Amino acid sequence: MRLRRILPFTVAALLFLIALIGSVAGTALWRMRSLLLRPDLSPEDIAGPLDLAFPLVIGLTVVSLGLVAGAGWYAVRTSRATFDNLLRATRQMRDGNLDVDLDLNRNDELGDIARHLGEMSETLQQRTVSRSYLDDVLDSMAEMLFVVDESNRIEHVNRAAVDRLGFAPSDLQGRFLDDLLIGDAPLPSPDDTVFRRTGSVTQIERQIQTEDGDNLPVLVSRSLLRGSPANAPDIVCVAQDISARKRAEEQLRDSLREKEVLLREIHHRVKNNLQVIASLLHVQSKKVEDANAKRLFAESQDRIRSMAFIHERLYQSEDLSQVNFSAYLDRLTEHLYRSHGVALRDVTCQLESEDAILAVDRAIPAGLIVNELVSNALEHAFPDDQGGTITVAFTTDDDRGCLRIADDGVGLEDPDEIDREATLGLRLVKGLIRQLRGDMTIDGNGGLTYRITFPLTDEEPETV
Questions:
Q1: What is the pLDDT of residues 177-203, one digit of tens each?
Q2: Are 448 and 415 in contact (CB under 8 A)?
């Protein structure tokens, strides 16, 4: 029977019993009053009805109280198990255990409450996860996790942090995280403006102490815990062990250092070999009587030495893929100045170059161009020991370089005549310009000026 029906029935029964007892007691009292008002009755006559009325009233009262007590005992006995199950279920749900089984087989309101509570438990299981499940997820993480308060005091750690550091959870909880981390600066506090705006700071490299006193390199990321109070927020810190990465980086650095040493040795050997070749050509040229042949030997030596200077600069450079082009030009023009005997003449070589850094694949062809054009100026621009100035200038503008070789010598009446020349040096210059993907202009007024422009980046030089 439904409780909503039992309760009115019970109240009605109680009211009926109360009315019955009251009517009996009232009737008895009225009867006693009538007997007491009759003068013809003796006390013995009155005592008889009293002896009958009092047991009747007391008996009805006892029977009523017994019925009420029995009904109450039955109600408590039949509902106590139900209330105990409901209380147990609500406590389980309060503690995060949603696996609640309530099968009471009651058709009253308590049964409805139990069924609704069971349905709510199933719905919550489908829409939420349990505390134990979340703990299992956190303990399955490979990274070390720390939940700290606003003062960086540790409140919770996962299993990875316990295993990696060697501390017991009780030893870590309540300890300041800053005491474990080693770095140049402390982690940003929750009051930090940037930290509050972004909610997280990542890629902070630190070292963390273990129980054995070792230091593990870690990468720390921090984020505010959603749902924590704004005035005292909790912070989630994840520390990733990067020991393997550090070892790999160190091995890579060692490998790079070995390769740099090897490359420097290669450049050194190439420079020495080129100098040996130039020396052999010099020795061989002494056995040649023809002046034109001697000139060709000298030109070949200059070309070889211009390439040797590049490898010399690379051997001395910090970066093995780039060369200081200004220092290289200074070394090259000085060599050409001495090798052509200019010191005995009144000819000045003037260098006007920015402190530019060029890649090797551009510095070598540009250096060969300078070698050819400066050698050509030294040989032909100042006949009959005439004096003058040869200018070598190099400038950069955005991603293009400009190489200018100029002299104030005799010049040419028709600069286009150069295009009709078929010498090896000029053909080499044109091929090198194509290799650099550059352009060349020639000005024959007041001497001879070559202006070569070429890109410094992006496109790879062609192979001639």
A1: 888 888 666 665 555 555 555 555 666
A2: yes
Question: Which tokens sit at 44?
Answer: 């013995």
| Closest by Cα among 62, 56, 47 to 28 | 56
Q: Is 220 helix (H, G, I), strand (E, B) or coil?
A: strand
Residue count (the chain): 464
Distance CA 312, CA 46 (A): 147
Is residue 409 a contact partner of residue 367, using CB atoms and an 8 Å limit?
no
| pTM assigned to the model | 0.49
pLDDT tens-digit readout, 291-324: 888 878 887 887 787 777 777 766 666 676 788 8
Could you tell me the pLDDT band of residue 117, with boundaries at 50, 70 and 90? confident
Q: End-to-end CA distance of the chain: give it in Å, rounded.
A: 105
DSSP secondary structure, 99-137, as one string:
---------SHHHHHHHHHHHHHHHHHHHS--HHHHHHH
Q: Quick one: tokens of 324?
A: 């200081």
**Residue 280, SS3?**
helix
Distances (CA, A) of 10 to 3, 71, 383: 10, 9, 139
Look at strands 235-241 and 144-148 and give their pairing: antiparallel
Cα 359 from chain centre:
33
Asked if 396 and 455 touch (Cβ cutoff 8 Å), the reply is no
- Whole-angstrom CA distances from 248 to 203, 256, 316, 352 are 18, 12, 28, 46
Q: Read off φ and ψ for residue 212, nearest 5 degrees.
A: -80, -5
Judge contact between 220 and 187, C-beta under 8 A. Answer: yes
Report the C-alpha gap between 355 and 290 in whole angstroms.
Answer: 42
Burial label, 59 (beta-carbon count in 10 A; 0-12, 13-18, 19+): exposed
Q: Based on the number of CB atoms within 10 Å of its own CB, is 310 exposed (0-12), middle (13-18) or buried (19 or more)? A: buried
Query: Structure tokens of 343?
Result: 């010191």
Give the residues across from 322 on adjacent strands: 359
